[in-house]
Amino acid sequence: MKMAELCRPFRDIRDRVVDRCYHLFPCLSDPARRSSLGLKVALVMMHLIYVGVLFLFDRDLIEKTRKEPWYTALYLLLFFATLAQYFFTSGSSPGYVLDAMRIANETDARIRKASMDSKQPASSKNGNFVVTVDGSQLSKNLLGNNAASWTKMVMDMYPLGTSVRNLTCTYCNVMQPPRAKHCHDCDRCVLQFDHHCVWLGTCIGQGNHCRFWWYICEETALCLWTGILYIQYLKSNISRAWWMDAIMIVLLITLSISLIFLLLLLLFHSYLVLTNQTTYELVRRRRIPYLRGIPERVYPFSQGVCRNLYNFCCARSSIYNMEPLPTAEELADKSRPFTCLDVLTCRCC
C-alpha cells in the first residue's frame, strides 16, 4: 500500500507527460498510427546503422572517397533517394473508392449545371466510361442524380444481371467497381487493391503501385550495393579487429536475408505488372466472384505486356481510371494460346 502511494506521483507525472505529447502530436494518440510511426522510425534507423557502421569501420572506403568522390556521392544519392521514395510512397494515396465517387459526382454536378444553363444534353466522362445526362431531367435532386450516376457507372462495368447488393461494401456502404476491395486496416475501399503494407503504413493500390515498385527497386539496388561494400571490407580487413569483423558479419547476414526477400518481392511485383494483376487477385482468385470461373492461366485484365507497362508507368495521370470486366468474347480470345504468327504480329504485346 505504501509502495503504491509512493509510486502514484510518478504515475501522475507520466500521465501528464503522455497527455501533453498526445496534445502536441495527435497522431500518437491512435495506436495504429503510433505503431506505423514506430515502424517508420525503425526502418530509417536500420538504414542509418548499416551505412553509418560502414563509413565508421571502413578506412579504405574513406580513402577511396578522397580519391574518387563521385563513387561515394552516387552511393549516398541512392541512399537518400531510397528514403525519399519510401516517405513519398508512404504518404501517397492508393486511390480510395469514396474519393473516386466524390470526384465523379463533382464532375457530374458541373456538367449538369452547365447543361442547365445551356438547356442542352451533356455528357460527363469519368475514367473509361461516359455517363449521358439528359437536359430534361435536370430538375431532379442533384445528390440523388449523382448517386444514380455512380451506380450506373459501376453497374456498366459488370455483366448484365449482377445484383447491386453483391457489389455494395457492407463497411463503407458504397458500390465497389471491379478490382476494388475494402481494407480493414485503413477502413476504406481501395481501387485495384493489392495489399496493405505494414512497413509503409498504407495500402498499395492503383494510385501508388507504381511508386511502390520503384521503391522496391531502389531498396534492392541499395541493399545490393551495401552488401558489396561489406564484402569488400571483410576481404581486406578480416584479420584486424575481431569484434569489428563480428559486427560486420552479423550485419552482412541480415543484409543478405533482406536482399533475398527484396529480390523475390521485386520479381513478384514485376510479374504482376506485366500481367496486370494484383496480389489480392492472384492469391484469392478462387474467392473473387468475377474471377472464379476464369482459368488460372488467363489474365482477364491484361492488355499485352507493352500496353500493361505503359498503363502502369505512363498512363497514371488519373488514379480513378477504372477497368470494366472483360466480355466473354474477350476472355475467349485471351484463352487462345499464342502461336508463332501471334508473336510475329506482337499479339502478346
Please write out the topology.
Blueprint (H helix, E strand, L loop, with lengths): L1 H23 L6 H27 L1 H9 L1 H22 L6 H22 L3 E5 L2 E5 L8 H14 L8 H4 L13 E3 L4 E3 L4 E3 L4 E3 L4 H29 L4 H34 L3 H5 L21 H9 L14 H8 L4 H5 L5
Helix pairs in contact: 3-4, 4-8, 5-6, 8-9
Task: Give short descriptive properties of this protein.
349 residues, mainly alpha, two-stranded antiparallel sheet, 13 helices, 60% helix, acyltransferase, protein-cysteine S-palmitoyltransferase activity
Spell out the helices and strands N to C: HHHHHEEHHEEEEHHHHHH
For the biggest sheet, the summary is:
2 strands, antiparallel
Spans where pLDDT lies below 50 across 5 or more residues: 122-144
- What proportion of the residues form beta strands (DSSP E)? 5-15%
Strand arrangement within the widest β-sheet reads 1-2
Total of helices? 13
Main location: membrane
Organism: Liquidambar formosana
Membrane topology: Multi-pass membrane protein
EC number: 2.3.1.225
Descriptive report:
This is S-acyltransferase. It is a multi-pass membrane protein. One of its GO terms (molecular function) is protein-cysteine S-palmitoyltransferase activity. Pfam families: DHHC. The chain crosses the membrane at residues 37-57, 69-88, 212-234, 246-268. This protein has a two-stranded antiparallel sheet. Strands 3-4 form a two-stranded antiparallel ribbon. It has a two-stranded antiparallel ribbon with strand order 5-6. The protein has 13 helices and six strands. The chain is mostly helical. The chain is globular and about 80 Å long. It starts with a helix and ends in a 5-residue tail after the last helix.
